[in-house]
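User: Show me a protein chain along with its predicted structure.
Assistant: Here is one chain, sequence first, then structure tokens.
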Amino acid sequence: MAHPASGLAKIVTAGEALAHWELSPVIIAGFPGMPAPSHDPVGYRFRNGVPGLRPLPCRAAFLNEMAGRPIAPWTGWRTERVHAPAEGGRVLFSDFAYTPEHRRVWCRCVLKVSEPDRYRFRLSTCGGVRIWLNGAECVRFEPFERNVEHSEEISLMLGVGENEILLHAEDLFERDTDWFFEMVSLDERPIENRIVADADADLVAALARLAGTGRPLHDVTTGNDAFVLRFDEAVAVDVPVTIRVHSTGHDRQTFLLEDRVLKAGETDLHVADAGRVCDGYHLVDMTFSAGDVSVEQTIGAAFLKVGRETDLGPTLEARKKAALSRLSHNGDRLAGKALAMLESGEVDPVSLFDILSWTLDLVEAREDCSDFQMVALLLIWDRHRDALPEGFAGRLRTAILGWRYWVDEPSNDVMWFWSENHTLCFHVCQFIAGRLFPDERFECSGRSGREQQALGEERLGAWLDSIEEHGFIEWNSAAYYPIDFIGLFAIYIFADEPLQARAKGLIDRLFRMFSLHTLAGVSGGSQGRAYDKELRAGPLTELSSFAAVAFGGGYLTSAVLALPYFCVSDYVPPAECAEWAKWANADALQARYTQGVDHNAHIQLFRTDAAMLSTVVDHETGEHGHQQHVLDVLLSGDPMARLWVNHPGEEDPWGEQRPSFWSGNGVLPRLAEDGGVALAIYDLKDARVRFTHLFAPEEHFDRLEARDGWLFAESGNGYAAVWATNGLSPVKTGPTGGVEWRSDGRVNGWVVTVGSKLRDGDFETFVARHLAAETVFDAASRSLSITLAGRQFALSFDGPLTVDGVERPFTASTVEPQVSLVPA
């Protein structure tokens, strides 16, 4: 094979990955497999990650049909894009699929060596990989285990000069799917890794560096701002850039699709006025063009039209009515908006038609997360079927009778039944659908409606038993408390006693927990399951919208997954919730309680009128994390004034793995808290990422100052102080510039405290108290102590927290928050 002189090349040595690849378009085809029941490991003792789940029917069929099958090498494809990152070599294709899909891609590169021999590589993948060397298949590595990375050592017999590598990667996509491959050289001899590219090599390399530094100019873009992307370095020529902004939510909308040009010498790219994008934390796809080569990058960006707290009225009834009206006009394109329109009487026929068409499409396809929409459809059928556009009542009836309500019903979908929020919604749907159609036959199960109702009620009882006793493993989750609200409010609206009373009891508990963790209208706190989209945009979460309706103030956004149910119900939250959410006393509030099976999560909260510290203490210390957000700080002066510490679960700041760069922990710390002082000790062992870090978006604090090893934050009347024993280094450039402070080292200790003007005096007094503190860390024994304002707090990785030498064990083994006052 003859290769033109133009191309991109990189010298790879031992420990470095082959980073340069030409990539074909990703080839996508549905892969349903044969309908069958799924394994049911629920047991109503919920754990994050659902260990023990057997492969779904679609994956069983995939393993049977795809592993080891003959594949003819395809050499005629045209390069769609190149992979030539400024650093790193993992080739990622991770994505989300709502129905089972077979995805595959062809990749190629050239390896040039000066000495003929076998060269060793470590091949890692989620999925399966085949490799052809100079036209001959030489590697088959097909573990095909969903979202589990596998590695093996391979060797390639490379001849002198150029050797062509053709690689085929594939996997079955089942909802969130990690799909990637990586080839790391294990050979000391240098290897030239080259790709053929009809483009200027220096320009493509510059674009790769450019793409890797892109970030929004503002951490949140308000309705009065332009949406601008900022890059760290300019390029010498004009660069065409295609920008696509699309939702991370269940509505899956695309808000912008723009072609722009980044002018030579400029580092800011004006994309559009922010008013063209709906509220939310969205994904921004960027494609940079250089000749026939494109470089792609996806980042996240928050948009918030409401720059101040929302005034919906003086009473709960008035706020419910006002919220329904606003959601009828401005809600996301989901079934909840249709419900809001029909309940408020403010119906836009075009919008209603669009929502019903789209929602019924996904329900009929049994797409993942359709259980969230089905609850609203059932309520619409019960209360508004006569008001539906022509033809929709019949279609909705057919969809309800044809849907799959639990894992024992045969199907070939990838709907997720096993997490506590999904399990609740499926049982609620089965109970309500059976009740609405008692004499009808349900297609998938073959059962009558009465049988479905009875089974749904029995299963709901098991779920309620578990949560009443153990609490929520997805504690404080801004992503999943709204889903719990969907199911519980549906029971409250539809069911008779005693189910209705049990649902109300858990709704009360949820309101108590999230009101305790709401500060200045923003929902926060440690969380059992967290995503970047909620952590980096607290006022945009649906829990913050719940606060706006329940307590006044807050931020009413476009979220309609759960809020309409609260608004159409007669439910009134416990009286203490409004006081907690708007705490204004000099005394601090302290709460302790547990959530999860076997008291898995020990939750502690310390909050003043203007600052909040929330932790989950001694939680699975030293274990590989999932999506647990273990330490969280909110300050009152800005809705985005938030800090947290975590160990990244991946290298990509914009990645979506579980755990990711910002949400969850690759390795969980030893963590303890007392009276607004938190101590954390990390031992990263052999983790891939070798640092821990702090999220602190500089633009959202009145002051963010580093002094004598401490970092101090002020927002409104709230303060925070952070210390890392290995030091704190600000990241000033790249995708985390202005929001990240890193601390290197396998073993590291962190101290985080909060305070407020009302309790601690002015900011300088708060700072001075910390500068006078004595902090001691012993990495060998993994022990940390701080003497602050005359009190000594000490923690070891294997031992208890002590305060002034007295052990302070966590003793509140109760799922109901135990709330007390800490005098000023």
